[in-house]
Amino acid sequence: MSKILNTPVSDEDLKDIRIGDVIYLNGHIVTCRDVAHRRLIEYGRELPVDIQGGAIFHAGPIVRKVEGEEKKFEMVSIGPTTSMRMEKFEKEFIEKTGVKVIVGKGGMGPNTEMGCRENKAIHCVFPAGCAVIAATEVEKIEGAYWQDLGMPETLWVCHVKEFGPLIVSIDAEGNNLFEQNKVLFNKRKDEALEELYTKVKFIK
Amino acid sequence: MEKTEALGLLTDRVAKFTAMIGKRLPDDVTAKLKELRDEESMPMAKMIYEAMERNQEQAVALNRPSCQDTGMIQMFVRVGSKFPYIDALAEVLKDAVAIATKEGPLRHNAVETFDEVNTGTNTGTKAPWLYWDILPDSDRLELDIYMAGGGCSLPGQGKTLMPGEGYEGVVKFVLDIMTSYGLNACPPLLVGIGIGTSIDSAAYMSKVALMRPVGSRNANPKAAQLEKDLISAIDSIGLGPQGLQGKKSVMGVHIENSARHPSVISVAVNVGCWAHRRGTIVFNSDLSYELITHKGVKL
Ligand code: SF4
């Protein structure tokens, strides 16, 4: 199933979305990673931008200033970073901000699952390494907050059109695609090893 | 050519080549990804392969780094003992990386350890990281340049086993990495394995293995067979692109090996991600050059 979500996203919008679905996003997505999470959760600071019903992107982009124009920026290259680093903060982050769509790379853990289930939110994967596609789907950078954190950690407010493909890895019921895959992969690995062992008797 | 002029030219060409590697995958990797896409039957995996392909086309069209993580730069230098610029080479290579960082652009990735500051140039203490080899009686320079991304460096591990654990221990070590860290290192992976006597030699060989053309085979028939067996075994796990399931898991498995002490067997693994940005360039003494990995590209 392929579906387009518009921000602000409602609980209702997420009701029929399941892990493994592919979605695209219209509206706004804000880059938000390690230090921004830490500031909100550990230092109790408010996020400088309202993301109630919104989307965040675990990413550290390459952004270029538009020549000759004050406070205008252009997205050069943007790709997801490992979401698991935010696992520690994400449940509380979802509760506090009301964010609905979290985009990153790789899976997240039980904390995020719980946060998604209790507050109706989803985690999605953007194919990593496809940084030019992602950049060209950013139509405009509309804001830049906490620039004191440097380019990768600044909260870049991006206006996006059909941003994706986003593969749903945790749905609003808390199902977790990567965890399910892991069980399958480990089972297959054990089978593969049994067969390999018979082929590597080089030390006799 | 004047010496200073020649050094400037060499620096410029290495810089341009380095910047280019961030935008275009080598021919063998591109071909392999296409093959994997064509063989893939799972719709989501196919869609991801198509996104990858589109991304690479756009990167060239827009002249931008294809992945935002342009890595730490590592180089394998094979320099002829009679290459005229051998004495200045280390400096040339460092300068070239700083220039490529500006002009690429490359992301600023070099963080000095202990001081924990980003140098902003991708150069620093022992950065770029260089491996040296001398080509006797030659006046040429062969250079492999590799962008070691964060995600694909993370699975790197090594272990020295007791011979009682045998090659069974070796293959288990490799497969365990695939389902733990390999999963998040942007598969399909190129898996480099070093097997030898001590952890440093194994680690070195595991990176050398990643410099080989995708799909090349070890000269020892038993090692070559193990490469093939490991490809089948890891593919059977079905990691797929991005670890989201698919028919295959790897672009290839390369093993490099050396003799070992009877009491130990060391194994190390390094992986390359799907965006395996490696390039080989060969310079003649007059600084004319040939691009081995990127045919037909102009610097
Ligand atoms: S693992 Fe490779 S493709 Fe993935 S984000 Fe890192 S450098 Fe890019």
From TrEMBL, chain B:
UniProt GO MF annotations: 4 iron, 4 sulfur cluster binding; L(+)-tartrate dehydratase activity; metal ion binding
Q: Specify the enzyme's EC class, one word.
A: lyase
Recorded catalytic reaction(s): these are: (2R,3R)-tartrate = oxaloacetate + H2O
Q: Which UniProt keywords apply?
A: 4Fe-4S, Iron, Iron-sulfur, Lyase, Metal-binding
Start and end residues of each Fe-S hydro-lyase tartrate dehydratase alpha-type catalytic domain: 12-281
- Give the EC number(s) listed in the UniProt record: 4.2.1.32
Cofactors (names): iron-sulfur cluster
Note the superkingdom of the native organism: Bacteria
Task: Output the InterPro entries linked to this UniProt entry.
Answer: Class-I_Fumarase/Tartrate_DH, Fe-S_hydro-lyase_TtdA-typ_cat
Pfam families xref list: Fumerase
- State how it assembles: Tetramer of two alpha and two beta subunits.
Identify its protein family: Belongs to the class-I fumarase family.
Alphabetical list of PANTHER family matching this protein: FUMARATE HYDRATASE-RELATED (PTHR30389), L(+)-TARTRATE DEHYDRATASE SUBUNIT ALPHA (PTHR30389:SF19)
The entry's protein name is L(+)-tartrate dehydratase subunit alpha
Q: What is the source species?
A: Anaerotalea alkaliphila
Q: Which gene encodes it?
A: ttdA
